[in-house]
């Protein structure tokens, strides 16, 4: 079956702009999580959605937001971009998310955002 | 503050050598997972351990979960160049943080032929 699909794969923005990233989970997976990966901080949790509801949120400013649609596809938005937002943004899906104690995630290839 | 500390951060070895990567925390996790990430790709799950003291083997890789479910180790026997990659440990949240994984910063492994 198809894996997690993220679009776009690469994008370049300038400070102050906003960006929207998209994620299509594995068919049948209802939980979608977003992570930011940078060389200095590693993978940092942004938020998790399950059945269109945000169930968990990490310690990121309000400029970072997301949503999930009824077909489980998810988008995340970053407004008023800063240089420090340059990172690889990873989306991951799982069958039930936190309902299963293992919480195994299946990751997409990521969206590489560069802010100039 | 990183909830999970991985060591070493970098590891460069020759083909055929053995190695161990450590993942430590002061927190208890519901589960502990190991992922491997290659350049330009997302992390791929290698194994999940859920019971304190559990040991799992995946070919040349041996994973262990600490008795107190706070730490884990990954041991690779006779490393091969194909093992090169970023190894990440991740702890599963509990209670109010169920559905969230806490990642270590990773161990970058390079195996030279």
Number of strands of chain B: 11
Distance between the termini of chain B: 36 Å
Question: Could you describe the largest sheet of chain B, including whether it forms a barrel?
Answer: 6 strands, mixed
Mean pLDDT of chain A: 91
Low-pLDDT stretches of chain A:
none
Strand content of chain A: over 45%
The most extensive contact between chains is: A-B, 29 and 27 residues
Strand content of chain B: over 45%
Q: What pattern of helices and strands is seen along the backbone of chain A?
A: EEEEEEEEEEE
Seen as an oligomer or otherwise, the chain set is heterodimer
For the CA atoms, what is the radius of gyration of chain B?
14 Å
Assign an overall shape of chain A.
globular
Query: What portion of residues of chain A is helical?
Result: under 10%
Tally of DSSP helical segments of chain B = 0
- The chain-level structural class of chain A is mainly beta
Radius of gyration of chain A: 13 Å
How can the largest sheet of chain A be summarized?
Answer: 7 strands, mixed
Global mean pLDDT of chain B: 90
Low-confidence stretches of chain B: none
Query: How many DSSP-defined strands of chain A?
Result: 11
- How far the N terminus sits from the C terminus of chain A, by CA atoms, comes to 37 Å
Compact overview of the structure:
Chain A has 116 residues and is mostly beta strands. Chain A has no helices and 11 strands. Classes of the chains: A mainly beta (116), B mainly beta (113).
Helix and strand topology:
The complex is a heterodimer of chains A (116) and B (113).
Chain A: E1 5-7, E2 10-13, E3 19-24, E4 31-38, E5 42-50, E6 53-57, E7 64-68, E8 74-78, E9 87-94, E10 106-107, E11 111-115
Parallel strand pairs in A: 2-11
Antiparallel strand pairs in A: 1-3, 3-8, 4-5, 4-9, 5-6, 7-8, 9-10, 9-11
Chain B: E1 5-7, E2 10-14, E3 19-24, E4 32-37, E5 44-49, E6 55-58, E7 61-65, E8 72-76, E9 85-92, E10 101-103, E11 107-112
């Amino acid at each position: 079956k198809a894996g997690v699909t993220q679009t776009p794969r690469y994008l370049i923005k300038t400070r102050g702009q906003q960006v929207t990233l998209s994620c299509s989970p594995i068919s049948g997976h209802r939980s979608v999580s977003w992570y930011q990966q940078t060389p200095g901080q590693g993978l940092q949790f942004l938020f998790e959605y399950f059945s269109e509801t945000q169930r968990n949120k990490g310690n990121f400013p309000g400029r970072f937001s997301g949503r999930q649609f009824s077909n489980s596809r998810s988008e995340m938005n970053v407004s008023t971009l800063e240089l420090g937002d340059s990172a690889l943004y990873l989306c991951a899906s799982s069958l039930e998310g936190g309902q299963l104690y293992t919480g195994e995630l299946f990751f997409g290839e990521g969206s590489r955002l560069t802010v100039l | 503050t990183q909830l999970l500390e991985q060591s070493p951060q970098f590891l460069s070895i020759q083909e055929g050598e053995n190695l161990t990567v450590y993942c430590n925390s002061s927190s208890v996790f519901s589960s502990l997972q190991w992922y491997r990430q290659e350049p330009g790709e997302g992390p791929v799950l290698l194994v999940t351990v859920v019971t304190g003291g559990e040991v799992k083997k995946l070919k040349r890789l041996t994973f262990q979960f600490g008795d107190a479910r706070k730490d884990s180790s990954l041991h690779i026997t006779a490393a091969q160049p194909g093992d090169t990659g970023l190894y990440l440990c991740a702890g599963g949240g509990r209670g109010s943080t169920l559905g969230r994984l806490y990642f270590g910063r990773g161990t970058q492994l390079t195996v030279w032929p």
